[in-house]
Amino acid sequence: MFGRSRSTGAIVLAHMALLVLGGAVVFLPSLFLSADPPADQEYTGTKRCASCHFDQFMKWKASPHAKAFSLLTKKYESDAKCLPCHSTGYGKKTGYGAVKDDALKDVGCEVCHGPGSVHEEISKPFAQVKNMTKEQEEAVRGSIWKILPHNVCLDCHKVQGHGESETPPDLKKKKK
What we know:
Blueprint: H1 6-20, H2 46-50, H3 54-61, H4 83-86, H5 109-113, H6 117-123, H7 134-142, H8 152-156
């Protein structure tokens, strides 16, 4: 089957329920998700996601994530310390760097949702369906490799965005 197993979904729902109820949820790496996408899934780029998710694309386009790569000067555009947070899929088999694809510059949909190739393929037959059945919707949603298996935001946004790697002095904004 695609994506997560039912037990992983139950774990995610349980964590969400605890959070809603005010309980402290401690992140435990899921035993059901690997750090790397399955070999049959490839990064496609945010513009391909936009063909079905246009409203979300327009919101993203206006966000700082859509400009993350352009913050880098030429000197840092190939820096392995910078690219994981300023591009999509850096360090992965079909991510930015492996395929120098401009569609993978910036922080796109697939940073949080994982590579979109299988989701795109599974979703094609339903592109013109206005009201999908529960089974069709489960097939489409289940084809997404991951949806935030952990707080991926923190991977880049810790200690003002640079955690262990300091912002290089030549990239720091001058305070007025």
